[in-house]
Design brief:
By secondary structure, the chain is α/β, with parallel strands linked by helices. The chain has a single domain, classed as NAD(P)-binding Rossmann-like Domain (Rossmann fold), CATH 3.40.50. It has eight helices and ten strands. Helix 2 packs across helix 8, helix 4 packs parallel to helix 5 and helix 5 runs parallel beside helix 6. The protein is globular and about 60 Å long.
Length: about 300
């Protein structure tokens, strides 16, 4: 595994950000009310991929506030270092941060070995890392398609398999939570991630059975329209109607997902495996998001 480029994040953090247009500030994540008691996750070690921003960052903050040893990983060292410093200053717990890509199985191996060397245990892997871009499927480039599939499906699998192998070798239980997407009715303008996330969902259901003898639980969480700083990649015409994709007509937030992850990590979920928890305000019964903006064909009064 030598020369893989895996590094501990040591980049100085930027000053705490001003109120962002989307999502929460660090101070809000450190003080936002939670339904859970302060020591709920004390003694656990939780790994969160994509922990430098968005839902992953919120998950890391909440887990640290509840007493867990937190490990965050991602591609951008600056973001990871910012989260490290913010958690240390605002919560009093400094997470391990590893700059790497989940696309590279050797980097995944090295990171997981480092986690066990540092903490002696790993209780839960939260596969939150992923990426996509809004575009009609007919216009996908081959490079774009491969990039999304390699990250969202293959990268998630490397994390799952490598963690499971280490739990099996040590004869200890494990817990995997995969952050996926609401794919039941398809995802127009996001077909690449729809394909990858659907693969992860049914992969998870399959190995939840295979790995039950090893005391490894595997579940998925499917967010709907959840506001994070990542919203800046979407055009205004899409943002204006995101909330209309569910019957509650509101956006969720990263804290909704963070608290769901804790539920699936705590003893409350000890009898849950192979499941998909959908957090979407009823979107799966209601509407389509159209992340690149609704085509004229589908607007009221338009069509063939």
């Amino acid at each position: 595994m030598g020369g893989s480029g895996l590094t501990q994040s040591v980049v100085p953090a930027a000053p705490f950000e001003e109120r962002p247009r989307f999502g929460f500030t660090d101070a809000e994540l450190a003080t936002r009310p939670t339904v859970y008691r302060d020591d709920l996750l004390a003694g656990q070690t939780i790994l969160v991929s994509g922990g430098g921003s968005g839902m992953g960052k919120a998950i890391a903050f909440l887990a640290a506030r509840l007493g867990a040893n937190v490990v965050i990983c991602g591609r951008k060292a600056e973001r990871l270092a910012s989260v490290q410093n913010a958690l240390e200053q605002l919560v009093g717990r400094r997470p391990m941060a590893v700059s790497m890509t989940i696309r590279d199985p050797e980097m995944v191996e090295e990171m997981l070995d480092r986690v066990f060397d540092e903490y002696g245990r790993l209780d839960c892997v939260v596969n939150n890392a992923g990426g996509q871009f809004p575009q009609d499927a007919i216009d996908f480039s081959r490079k774009g398609w491969r990039a999304v599939i390699d990250t969202n499906l293959n990268g998630t699998w490397w994390m799952m398999q490598e963690a499971a192998q280490r739990w099996r070798t040590r004869d200890i239980p494990g817990n995997i939570i995969n952050i996926v997407a609401n794919v039941e009715r398809g995802m127009p303008q996001a077909a690449h991630t729809c394909a990858a996330r659907a693969g992860v969902i049914y992969l998870s259901k399959t190995v939840a059975t295979e790995w039950a003898p090893h005391r490894i639980r595997v579940n998925c969480i499917a967010p709907g329209v959840v506001e994070t700083e990542g919203f800046h990649v979407y055009p205004e015409q899409a943002l204006e109607r995101f909330h209309e994709a569910n019957p509650m007509k509101v956006r969720g937030d990263a804290w909704d997902i963070a608290e769901a992850v804790v539920y699936m990590t705590a003893p409350s979920a000890k009898f849950i495996t192979g499941e998909l928890l959908v957090i979407d305000g009823g979107q799966s019964q209601w509407g389509v998001v159209w992340p690149a903006g609704m085509p004229d064909y589908f607007k009221p009064g338009q069509g063939s």
